Amino acid sequence: MTELTGKIVLGPHRYGKAENRVVRIVRDTDRHEIRDLNVSSCLHGDFDAAHLEGDQGTVLPTDSQKQTIYSYAKEKGVEFIEEYGLALARHFVDDVEPVRSARIEIEEYAWERVVVDGAEHDHTWTRKGSEVRTAAITVEGTGTDRREWVVGGLKDLVVLKSTGSEFQGFLTDPYTVLEPAEDRIMATSLQARWRFASTDVDWDTVYAGVRATLLEVFANLHSKALQQSLYEIGRAVLERYPSIAEIRLSAPNKHHFLYDLARFGVENAGEVFHADDRPYGLIQASVLREDAPDAGITWEPYTGIM
Amino acid sequence: MTELTGKIVLGPHRYGKAENRVVRIVRDTDRHEIRDLNVSSCLHGDFDAAHLEGDQGTVLPTDSQKQTIYSYAKEKGVEFIEEYGLALARHFVDDVEPVRSARIEIEEYAWERVVVDGAEHDHTWTRKGSEVRTAAITVEGTGTDRREWVVGGLKDLVVLKSTGSEFQGFLTDPYTVLEPAEDRIMATSLQARWRFASTDVDWDTVYAGVRATLLEVFANLHSKALQQSLYEIGRAVLERYPSIAEIRLSAPNKHHFLYDLARFGVENAGEVFHADDRPYGLIQASVLREDAPDAGITWEPYTGIM
Amino acid sequence: MTELTGKIVLGPHRYGKAENRVVRIVRDTDRHEIRDLNVSSCLHGDFDAAHLEGDQGTVLPTDSQKQTIYSYAKEKGVEFIEEYGLALARHFVDDVEPVRSARIEIEEYAWERVVVDGAEHDHTWTRKGSEVRTAAITVEGTGTDRREWVVGGLKDLVVLKSTGSEFQGFLTDPYTVLEPAEDRIMATSLQARWRFASTDVDWDTVYAGVRATLLEVFANLHSKALQQSLYEIGRAVLERYPSIAEIRLSAPNKHHFLYDLARFGVENAGEVFHADDRPYGLIQASVLREDAPDAGITWEPYTGIM
Amino acid sequence: MTELTGKIVLGPHRYGKAENRVVRIVRDTDRHEIRDLNVSSCLHGDFDAAHLEGDQGTVLPTDSQKQTIYSYAKEKGVEFIEEYGLALARHFVDDVEPVRSARIEIEEYAWERVVVDGAEHDHTWTRKGSEVRTAAITVEGTGTDRREWVVGGLKDLVVLKSTGSEFQGFLTDPYTVLEPAEDRIMATSLQARWRFASTDVDWDTVYAGVRATLLEVFANLHSKALQQSLYEIGRAVLERYPSIAEIRLSAPNKHHFLYDLARFGVENAGEVFHADDRPYGLIQASVLREDAPDAGITWEPYTGIM
């Protein structure tokens, strides 16, 4: 047994207010707009004394962070969640002395207008889809040391194709009992995060375009494995959007097992499946550019820590 | 303390297989169709000996019910979930001797086709919305004693209006501190269940019409309280659909609290809200016809029991 | 298609404030006590005008109900959740004019004291188990028409036995492929609700006794099916507690499938299982006394509605 | 807008089978033992062709990984989850040619024996607590390049103290409205992960000791902030366990707000609280030794990715 005797010291630390449920209504005209957000803040900085001695002199309460998050929804607006997140992160770094870097994580829930008599309603919506748009904004340092990163993304985009997917020719070992599949259901709940090369981006246009690209490639590619689909999705996104330096994809393989009906004399040619919950395959891949700028601290998760 | 001494007897009992995740693909042409279901079966009947003596002689295994549920997805198809449920319930009552009545509860998850280059894809879909279509089918007895009930419904239909809602003139007591609201956000996650007067119904047309009616009334009615909205929704549904005998509505009042920004010198005229999770108001109402046929055992829940 | 033409009328309706998360600390001495509750209120009464005309004149806001729920946690205390619930329900019926009956549903989360150096800590606890104690209190009418019901209960009591359970001799049909099992794992997440014959009960003693009885019978009975276990549990509870008129039990059969390792030349004599999530068997049974008093409206669920 | 033009390449990638729900019964004597696990595998290696060309020749199916996970529960046993995880990870690296490193993540759910007539039952248990024991085992390389890391941990350990916690003297800014608190409830759902310096550890003894230490420090320390509690917890763990090189702690501050009852003429001296769900403070800190060996790739999460 290895016994260590080195001095015990405080390592990296951070804190913030997680999951502020901000709903912003824009009501400048009779046709209202809605943005429905879940906002988390995370501050790094000179907070050693709070840990070592219980001295809160450099600690801005998480409650103050919460107030700022709500107030900025009006002061700065949330026309683009990326800009709103940048405004918050810059504020914490610039205006709160002990803060060295700030991270803002945002989830946005989509709504769609109710249609009445063929017309979109001015101020009534239903929640749209299970999918969540995400953004993670990191701002570090001041003056010439200032660095800023924006990671766009989405999660819980549940997508399924009923043909155009196979899984064959795989490596086998003594525990391999799986039969090759020439034609199967492929389904996943896609999570994608893409890192921008700068903060000067047409946010909503790129988001819509990346989302459409993900779905187009998933649908149109005849897939030999989820790995191939992920890579081709990532490549297509980077090819179409030079503002994106890198994309990371995580995809559970939501298994749909063909149900054995032959026992009952019933033919089942890819028509009846059991959708299983667990276990699931979990495939993760990244695609990037050779000239991608340094990612710095941007990929450190906060609220999603295991 | 009241002490009872009466004979102890077996009361009502039932059993089944819950949450069978059936996915049915129709692939007769290149343009596939998908129905994604969560199916539960529940049998009532002569199962006393299983409880009293552990004798399984009249008990059809829940595994056999599961097999039937999957097999009927091909044998009978699932063009309409109500017909598929009726086929299953009739089968258990007619073909399994000890069964006196059967209930089939179905949740259906909606999918929408991926659009690529402006065209709907033949075999790729994304999950649509949080909303779930429901059906509960009950079949009781055989021959001239045969009775059948179908309850259609939906749940988790999250809907919000940013104006056109007030709450004023309410009863007050010593614990009342709430201020009247002239203009507020009204949001709910609507659950509705409607009982049909017969089993001869144009299922999908009525479902689409009821759903549209719910949303139309919620959107267009200037609401003095969620109670009023529920009643007007129910009345409109019954007026438009003479095939429906009764409708039950359950609506959590998902509170959106106007955020106090005046403390920071920021005006907030109905623009920034905190969406609170708990507690929530919970409003439930039913609307029915005076000539509604007897509901029998149809409103007894199964998987949703508290 | 049956078309109904009867007059459309308002049916049963009710409302309240659900899921108030009340935490009550008793700190009369250095050894604190904690009660951690989730409280929901439900009022029935003369609220027709709110539905039909939007007139809130008889509607006590759900916010006022919330304030009362928190204030009574101090005014009346929560030594027993059943007494606390009775105090709340009686208050709403007696002190709020339009209310005809009131229902209070309570979930209580158990905590256990942290043990430091062999001694229980005075004011620090950890959450204990997944199990939740429940109570549903219904009070109806005033004066000589007054009726009161208390239903105790628990849910999410996850229990498993690794032997002493079989399932054989069952009815078969053409869809039966299940093999009889001589020795299997039996596991469930037990939900039980028991109706008291009066409100004069030694609440905590009976709760502890019923819980112990549930577990003892589940453990000791060699079970021929979950149905038998439920009945014997119910019978034992009623035999031991003459204050209880009726018990209802709901038990998902959480399947543990013996894993096929023979394919890899590995013996598996009841040692390695896959714990499956869905589907699951769902068994429900009630046991009651022939002299049980009328249950009135007490079994109508509120927050648990399907 | 920054436009990148660099070559697009495949970045880091990995795959595995997540959430295998393995239940292992040891039945060598009448007194059975149970281990209830959720096991995920993750492989890194030469899988480029699967992504770039859809060639599965080096891809061991996730199904084969699943079979191995279940089979090893018997072949190797699960006396200690860390040893079981090491056996699996070593197998994938050593026996599957294209694999360069393997990570096994395990959650273990605790059970406690049912007590009947004062004696622990031989083969019946209830689920114990909400808390989950975790382990993450990483094995990389072969021969002299072989490296192995084990991270122990727990999550969802919900703990609350009703006094002995303050929060005062904090930094203020224009958004600060929080009042200092001299005496408050402090509650969290603790997640801790600790990295061992070697794989030669008395696993269960250390786990029990770390868990007891976490609770003891949380309970006994008069806390000036959650930050201080986390640091003191980490320091105590490292002081007592020289086999541990580093510990990482993540703690949501589960707010309990003192309820304002003065409005109703009711005194509330720290007795009635509202337990709020969201937002919550989120505090994260690490404590480590200056002579801690290199962490390599061990802190990369897999199933917990944001």
From TrEMBL, chains A, B, C, D:
Q: What class of enzyme is it?
A: oxidoreductase
- Extract the SUPFAM superfamilies matched here: Tetrahydrobiopterin biosynthesis enzymes-like
Q: Which residues form a coiled coil?
A: none
EC no.? 1.7.3.3
Respond yes or no to whether keyword Nucleus is given for this record: no
Q: Which Pfam families match?
A: Uricase
Which keywords annotate this record? Oxidoreductase, Purine metabolism
Q: What does this protein do?
A: Catalyzes the oxidation of uric acid to 5-hydroxyisourate, which is further processed to form (S)-allantoin.
Give the record's family classification. Belongs to the uricase family.
Q: Which NCBIfam families match?
A: urate_oxi
This chain's protein is named: Uricase
**The species this protein was found in:** Rhodococcus rhodochrous J3
